[in-house]
Amino acid sequence: MQKRTIIILLLVCNLFTVFGQLVALKPLLDAQINNTEINIPKGTYLMDTQNGGGYTFNNLTNVTINLNGSQIICNKASNVFTLNNCSNVTIKGFSVDFDPLLFTQGIITAVDSSKKWFEFIIDSGYPLTNIETSRTQFFNPLTRELKRNSLTVYDGSMTISAISGTTNKFRATKLYTWDALESVGDLVVLSCSGTGHAFYMYRCQNMNVEDVVLYGAPSFAFFENETNNSHYLRCKVTLNRDDLVRSSIRLRSSNADGLHSKNASKGPTIENCEITYGGDDCIAINGAMYPIYAVDVVNRTISLLSTSTSSYLTAGDTAQLVSYAGQKLGVAKMEITRSVTPSSTDISTFLAKYSSLQSNTNYTYGIQIRLSSVPAGLAVGDVVYSRDKTGQGFVIKNNVIGHIRSRGVLLKSSNGTVTGNTISDCEMAGIQVAPEYDWMEAGFSSNLEISNNTITNCMFGRSSTGGKAGALSVMCVGANSTIAPLGAYSKINIHDNIINSCPRPCVVITSVDKLKYNNNSISADISTIRVNGQDFGVPNNVDLWTKNITYDNLTEVSTIQDKKNKVYISDGKICGLEQFIGGTLLIHSLDGSLILQKPLNSDSIKLNLNNKNHGIYILSLKTGTQNKSFKITL
Q1: In terms of Cα–Cα distance, which of 581, 561, 577 is closest to 569?
Q2: Counting CB atoms within 10 angstroms of each CB, which of 128, 242, 324, 362 has the fewest?
Q3: What predicted TM-score, i.e. pTM, was given to this entire model?
Q4: pLDDT tens, 58-75?
């Protein structure tokens, strides 16, 4: 132990010596700013964010920025790179880290018997100042992964105070009753103060980001807003495991999301990336949604509440109007937008309907839109968003994702693909498709393909009866806290995914018109019981649960023999099962409840269903080489 301590002290001293000798990166970039190829020799550079923040590229076109595998060290929380109004730019070949780090971590040494406080010691080399309670997480000391059934707690949950006579020991005193199952020996991570995103693109087009590694970020690691058709290739947001300066391996990368795309007309392509160990969602793609406080059918106007005088709604965009309950009411063209002033009554009526909305007291600004037509039934409390600015056309392909407190992939977009990803160790869903009224994030998805993904050990966080269920979740809940009706989503194709070691229900699908669901393999963790979604009637004793859906892909099993269809029903019996001998037959109701599971052998291939209730069922036939589903009517 003494030898390890001496080595750490020497490394710290060496770091500070080198830190003072690092070559400043900003002057090197300035010297080449007018070049079509900015080429920085491989090295370790200082981005002096203490003085003037990070580096900003403005209005670049057809430029390549290559740092050739360089390491960039930042000395204060800030945006590191910002790109504004750039197009056809490739930026590649560097890693970013922060010193001091943007979080701290340590070990819990004492817990009050009534759980009113706990004490912890900060690991050597981690920050001792500017510690915040904005995102506090607890880890299993054996696995160094997030603790199962624990909580992430935020501002207002506790206060932090140094223990007298020590330099690295603190007490966290709770401000209300909560229990994260914290115990002596557990590891704890807390954010440090600071703002910014490590890599930020605003109103850019056709950007290529290649071989960029972000070991930390004050908030989001990669963040793009109103940026279209970007391509992230072989990028990483992950732990810096080569940090020998500190006495323990880091537990966190970015403090918030790994890659967040907002308000894009054409969404990003994210492929062969690794996004892990962040403080929030790994990948999120969405647009902005606005609540309606006034409807004027005669003048074809709707008035909205916003947190600012500007919005992501533009004349010429297609407006999607959605009810408070999650029913799509129709679309219209936005003709004119302008600022208006809502009354105090307008605002108070809104607050009464949206009491759980994040930052709801900031909705004090008004925007009025004239539409080409006002859909029938549109009312106060309903919402609107631009269908043209939700990141449509995204691709999320062949990535490694997970080890976080929230969702691996969180989608509110359309016309996109999620395929070939390995997703594991997410406290919530591995893949979740859902608009969120509480965050006013749009939209209501259509034309999605979710295929060939492997989802393992997700939904291991504490249950929430009001939370969304399913490691693979395509679930829509209206602002009225009920499952949205059929048609909130449409044309969702889910096939050839593998879901392992996740609690039931492993897959939850609601509100989809024309669902395709084929060849998905589920091996549930039946030892872990979750009650997520029970407020909405979601059971926890089935692998797959559906509500308010129609299917688009199931072959209707004929009730008479059809030479083109080897499986058929005759006199209440399923015939033509010889090709599936050695396999398994399963029958589910349309809500996902397992009605019958039976191995197929020579004695059971003519199955009599006359004793089953009349209705529509899903017949699945599985062998080592085949996995087929049919719709049957009894």
Answers
A1: 561
A2: 242
A3: 0.88
A4: 999 999 999 999 999 999
